[in-house]
Amino acid sequence: MAPDGPPITRPISCKQCGATPAASVQIRSHLGLLLWMRCKAVDGPFCSHCGIALIRVMTTKTLWQGWWGPLSLLATLFALHSNLDAYRDLRRLPRSAPPSARARSGMGKPVHRRPPAYVALIPLCCAIWLLTSLIGSAS
Predict the structure, then answer these.
(1) Strand spans (E) along 22-85
(2) 48: number of CA atoms within 13 Å, CB side?
(3) Mean pLDDT in residue range 106-131
(4) What pLDDT band is residue 70 in, cutting at 50, 70 and 90?
(5) Contact 42/53 with Cβ under 8 angstroms?
(6) CA separation (Å) from 16 to 3, 8, 50, 108, 122?
(7) What whole-number distance in Å separates Cα of residue 120 and Cα of residue 24?
(8) Half-sphere exposure for 101 (CA within 13 Å, toward CB)
(9) Cα–Cα distance between 67 and 123 in angstroms, integer?
């Protein structure tokens, strides 16, 4: 005989460290090459610690590797926006301690403190130079 009342639900646990609570998010990176591109997505429930650590790594890779193909601009912007949404979801979670059986890896530096992230300024400066050249020659 089934018990009366609402069903018992278990909290979602992090797929890396097993901590609860966790959020189901997708973290993306993009690699733009001259003739093709490669997108990577990691699904899973992550606690705030593990998810933010992975977002920092994959966003930094996207910022310095994502812009180098002719069609990669849109895919790079999509990956960055998706990671920003995942970051917001993970920041809403309360901090939690992992179960004693698994250890967490370090979060590392924030994206703005990682030098490879600033490689994204190269295509941005090129785009600004191109736009100002086009506007200057049109007038």
Answers:
(1) 23-32, 37-46
(2) 11
(3) 80
(4) confident
(5) no
(6) 33, 24, 7, 16, 35
(7) 28
(8) 4
(9) 7
The helix/strand/coil state of 126 is helix
CA pair distance 26, 120, nearest whole angstrom: 22
DSSP code, position 102 = S
28-44: buried (b, 16+ CB within 10 Å) or exposed (e) per residue? bbbbbeeeebebeebeb
What would the two tokens of residue 14 be? 């992090």
Written as six digits, the tokens of 27 are: 């973290």
Residue type for 76, please? Answer: T
Q: Map tokens 């990956």 to a residue.
A: 79
SS3 40: strand
Q: How far is CA 55 from CA 7, 70, 130, in A?
A: 34, 25, 31
Q: pLDDT tens digit string along 25-65?
A: 999 999 988 888 899 999 989 999 999 999 999 999 999 88
Size of the chain, expressed as the number of residues it contains: 139
CB count within 10 Å of CB 96 equals: 18
